[in-house]
Amino acid sequence: MVFGCGEAPFAPSTAGGPALAISDGAHNGNAHFFFLPPLVRQAEFSGTFDGSLSPVVRITENGAPLVDLTPTVHLLDELYQVNWHTDDFALDSSKSYRIVVLLDGTELGFADVVVGATGKELRPVNTDEFIALKDGRTLPIKFRIEDGALRGPLTWTLETIDGTSNVLSVWASSPSDVWVAGGFTTLFHFDGSTWTQPGLPSGTLNTNSLFGFSPTSVFAASQAGVMHYDGTMWTFVLGGVGELFGIWGTSATDLFVSGDGRFLHFDGSNWTDIPTGLSTAFNTDRLLAMWGTSSTDVFIAGASVGPKGRILRYDGNTVTEIMTVQGAAVHAIHGTGPNDVFAVGSGGHIWHYDGAAWTGMTSGTSLPLGGVFAVSPVDVYAAGSSGSLLHYDGVTWAPVTSGTSLFLGGIGYGVFALSADLVYVTASPGTLLVGRR
After folding, report:
1. Which long-range contacts (CB under 8 A, 24 or more apart) does 77-81 make?
2. Residue 429, preceding bond cis, omega within 30 degrees?
């Protein structure tokens, strides 16, 4: 979604290329919440409108709250509306903005906004909907809330895998295609009813992390290298580079892995070793996890002896260290965009990146945290030792009752969400904590 100043008023149009992020019933989000024109095209819906609610529209700037607006209900039109008078704010085209609709503190949906001074400035931005503002620079925000939009908290249950294995990582393409991996050749698959162990190639050692793209394309970073699952069997596609921990990519032909000072890229045929400037000696400069927004924007988290935590960033050409913290390791990293990234580590540390700087957040715990997953900027989970499970609502981190004292979240990839309604957390030994709504 884009708007500029000084162009035709509210003129939706289309453009090629990927759209900016929008989450509502028409964009793989809450099935009972819809943004309405002029923000987006008219959507189809069939639920019952609920005009008795008191939603809040929050505008964020680089992931931080900018202003909360109170909409008015229009019962005849079956919608809520509030006008965002952008001339009341010194908006900056170099910053990211998001419209978030909240109900009783729960996010119903969001829409990203790109600010530009002119239509010419905005023209290079590829979006699904283009909205321009003229003169008063007022953006009418209209949306529809139906019965069932406000979903209660997740219900958490412990599900036994084998009860003994050290499970560190989880990835799923659907509720009937779930993989977990961990130490001592731990690798299990869930088909919706039963957990099974697949055959593994000779030489398989600790399987540290999982990342996939479909049921027939799943990768695992391990002590012996990188394995790939093609829907039938696991095979090694890389070895001889030391133990690997981090894994992330945009496709099976654009995959990154990391290990002891190593950062490598796979194009589907060949591996390229990208210099990090770190030691590749065993357990010296260990890169434990990564997450990215594109093949030219990858965040890499880890720790060195000391401990010394660090976060690196790859821009498609060079790896640069962008955060260093003494006395704490960084175990996991995840985000929703380049200006909304979360990292967790030892001592209950949580950090947030807003596109300009890393800031420490109050977690409320001193226990080590090993996994983090951002479903949205106001729906983030972190997990760690002694059953520690935390949730961030866009304002504060709060404890969630996990019902267990097991070690949660692994190191790096132990929290994974298929949606806001289905979240998986590894629990050692041999268990998976599942949050459902």
Report:
1. 78/49, 78/51, 78/144, 79/36, 79/49, 79/142, 79/143, 79/144, 80/51, 80/53, 80/55, 80/142, 80/143, 80/144, 80/145, 81/140, 81/141, 81/142, 81/143
2. yes
Which structure tokens are listed for 257?
């892995």
Among all chains, which residue has been given the structure tokens 């609610």?
A: 53
Query: Which amino acid type is present at position 66?
Result: L
What is the pLDDT at residue 21?
Answer: 73
Residue 168 φ/ψ, nearest 5 degrees: -120, -25
Query: What is the band of 117 on the pLDDT scale with cuts at 50, 70, 90?
Result: low
Asked if pLDDT for residue 133 goes beyond 50, the answer is: no
Task: Count other C-beta atoms under 10 Å from residue 1's C-beta.
Answer: 25
Going by C-beta distance under 8 Å and a sequence separation of 6 or more, which residues neighbour residue 265?
254, 255, 256, 271, 272, 274
d(CA 106, CA 40): 22
Task: Tally Cβ neighbours within 10 Å of residue 201.
Answer: 13
Q: Answer whether 262's CB lies under 8 Å from 271's CB.
A: no
317 or 2, greater pLDDT:
317
Whole-prediction pTM value? 0.76
pLDDT, tens digit, 9 for 90 and up, residues 160-199: 999 999 999 999 999 999 999 988 778 999 999 999 999 8
Residue 119: DSSP 8-state: H
Backbone dihedral angles phi then psi of residue 265, each to the nearest 5 degrees: -125, 140
In our burial notation (b when 16+ CB lie closer than 10 A, e otherwise), range 416-427 reads bbbebebbbbbb
Of 149, 126, 203, which Cα lies nearest the Cα of 35? 149
Answer whether 257's CB lies under 8 Å from 266's CB.
Answer: yes
Cα distances (angstroms) measured from residue 127 to each of 22, 37, 232, 385, 400: 10, 15, 38, 42, 37
